[in-house]
Amino acid sequence: MVRRQTFTLLIVTCIGHVLLVSAQVQSKSGLPVIQAAAFGTFARVQGLTGGVADTVQSIWNHYFALRGAAIENETLHRRILDLEADLQRQRALAGRAQSLEDTLGLKQSQPAPTLAARVIAGNPSPAVLTIMIDRGTDDGLRPNMAVVAAHGVVGRVIAPISRSAATVQLLVGRNAAAAVTFERSQAGGMVVGGLSPTVLRTEYVPALADIRAGERVTTSGQDGIFPAGFLVGTVDQVSHAGSAIDREITVRPAVDFSRIDMVLVVLTVPRAGGPS
Amino acid sequence: MRFGSILLTVAAALVIQMAIAQFTMGGRWIFDLVLVAVVLAGLEWGPPAGIMAGTIGGLSEDLLSGGVVGVGGLAKTLVGFAAGAIGSQFVLTTAPGRTLILAGASVVHRLLMLALFGVIDQQWPHVSWAAMLTETAINGFCGWMVFHGLNTLPGAMERRRGSRRVTRRP
After folding, report:
1. Is the pTM of this model over 0.95?
2. What is the ipTM, given to two decimal places?
3. CATH homologous superfamily for A112-268?
4. What's the confidence (pLDDT) of residue A85?
């Protein structure tokens, strides 16, 4: 039989947890000091662990897993040639656009500055979809800065942030959202995470907008966090539940969230207020 | 000594969990090595150890997750206590028996977490049964390796020492 003392310990511990949860849910303001301290300490440990893991992975990738590298190299050479040709075309178009801007006296548009960051850890709790990156307040990171990868939007910087590390909330995570534009129909809306790790839900899409599967979805910039024009994903499914107006649109993210090694933090200071 | 062992077990699980989680982000391969450590502590050292491991492991996870601190702590404390209580009632020394307890603990833990989030958010969250099954299977597999290792490693080392003694005799 379980002893009486053990039951007392269990009850006291559970009451402690409940009080702890209640205090946070009621207040919701600022970051608890204990949380910031724990994050700062663990970020250093994880930075070290991440470095060791990267070294092992690098040794494996560069010395042992080179099977098929020659074929891949050849394919990549061909791809580079194609891309160079594409680049030439794009440069020519950009030159023409520039001259048109100069002619019309339009204001020059500047690309947002970005900072590359390495993913050093995932989240210890499987239910929470966040990652830890090796850049922090020393590198100019602040909460709500947008984080993107080569293929599209990854998420945004959230607290806790230490001097050398920061937490990134993934777009597919619970409570994550971004204002978007459907590229073909030019309809606005919002994508919201939490449905599944590989699918985004949409909200506030005009009922009469002609949305079709396969349509590209990009950030609209209206949330004040994600700059306009970054790819979020493509429309996966438009399902009608009952009437034609009552529909559910799901978006498949452009980023494969199961393989994120490097990300870019958009260093534009976000406007006050956010989507979540 | 026991507190040190519990702390070491949970800390090791937490570090490995975070290191591996970065390669499996996106929820395709969900696992919870801290839960494995909590169940192991409960089965190995009894209910108080399960409660202690659950509290330490759960709170650490919560603090590092950036979510509501205490949710994981509460769920893991209850699971750690339950594992300890079952371990003290039945003699569970074999790896398969302990793995079965771990699999049950994984399901109970996930349901507890969903229920607590449901209470906080005032709405029942989306339940992915496939993800829950995957988590149970991966946790079970990791647990089986740990339990099997704990059962076989001391014996193997003893046998090795014994064979050395025999070979040294003239």
Report:
1. no
2. 0.73
3. Rod shape-determining protein MreC, domain 1 (2.40.10.340)
4. 77
